């Protein structure tokens, strides 16, 4: 299978400040093919302001992305492309998939602590359960932070596969993020599922994965960004063939 990417036209921003939606649809369509997602639902959410989020649904399993209206009104639209690629990368990497509560270590630890309080277990046992709750919270936040780093790196690969300057666009998206206050950098970061903007920019600049235990990388699988075999789309210009997909 061969795929020769051609530069995907970047949506233009008229003088009024609103994004050219047909061009935006073309960009999202190309990124969806590169991420090999079966579908994608984009929802414009005023409550998100200048933020975006990737979400799933237990009903139809359709990947969903929420975009704040401020992202569409930005006078410089480059950050929007990096944000879109980042959220699509979350779905491509399988982040945030809904799972049953009994497979959630944080939920199990809290349930055990609550049961211990109800049963009036000894203080020493309750102290151990409190430590388990804190450990599960710290581990969950650490996992979420690593997913943010991985999504940034995969967003670069998706944009490159679409024929766009991936690193420059993701860097532009991270440049708009506000750095955390000093107090957050001292201790608050440990319970935060999002790394600081400074840390994300630093990791992206190195071009290497974020630091983690070596054995954790054994189970990490990163899909290659390429359109699915035989895919054809008139919106973004992909034409499927028997030998593969060409743009």
Automatic annotation (TrEMBL):
Cofactor names from the entry are:
Zn(2+)
Q: Where are the transmembrane segments?
A: 117-139
How the cofactor is bound: the record states:
Binds 1 zinc ion per subunit.
Which Pfam families does the record match to this protein?
Peptidase_M48 (PF01435)
Q: Which residues form the signal peptide?
A: none
Q: Which domain of life is it from?
A: Bacteria
Q: What name does UniProt use for this protein?
A: Peptidase M48 domain-containing protein
Supply the source organism for this entry: Streptosporangium fragile
């Amino acid at each position: 299978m061969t795929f020769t990417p051609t530069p995907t036209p970047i949506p233009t921003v008229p003088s009024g400040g609103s994004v050219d939606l047909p061009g935006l649809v073309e960009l999202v369509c190309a990124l969806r093919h590169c991420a090999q997602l079966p579908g994608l639902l984009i929802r414009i959410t005023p409550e998100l302001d200048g933020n975006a989020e990737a979400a799933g649904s237990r009903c139809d399993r359709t990947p969903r992305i929420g975009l704040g209206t401020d992202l569409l009104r930005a006078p410089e639209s480059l950050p929007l492309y990096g944000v879109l690629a980042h959220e699509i990368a979350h779905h491509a990497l399988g982040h945030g998939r809904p799972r049953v509560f009994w497979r959630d270590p944080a939920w199990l630890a809290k349930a055990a602590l609550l049961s211990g309080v109800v049963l009036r277990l000894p203080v020493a046992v309750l102290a151990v359960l409190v430590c388990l709750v804190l450990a599960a919270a710290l581990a969950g936040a650490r996992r979420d932070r690593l997913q943010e780093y991985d999504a940034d790196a995969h967003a670069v690969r998706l944009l490159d596969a679409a024929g766009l300057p991936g690193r420059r666009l993701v860097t532009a998206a991270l440049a708009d993020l506000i750095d955390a206050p000093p107090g957050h950098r001292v201790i608050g970061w440990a319970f935060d599922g999002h790394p600081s903007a400074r840390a994300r920019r630093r990791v992206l600049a190195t071009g290497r994965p974020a630091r983690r235990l070596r054995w954790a990388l054994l189970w990490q699988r990163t899909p290659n960004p390429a359109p699915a075999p035989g895919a054809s789309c008139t919106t973004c210009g992909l034409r499927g063939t028997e030998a593969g997909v060409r743009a």
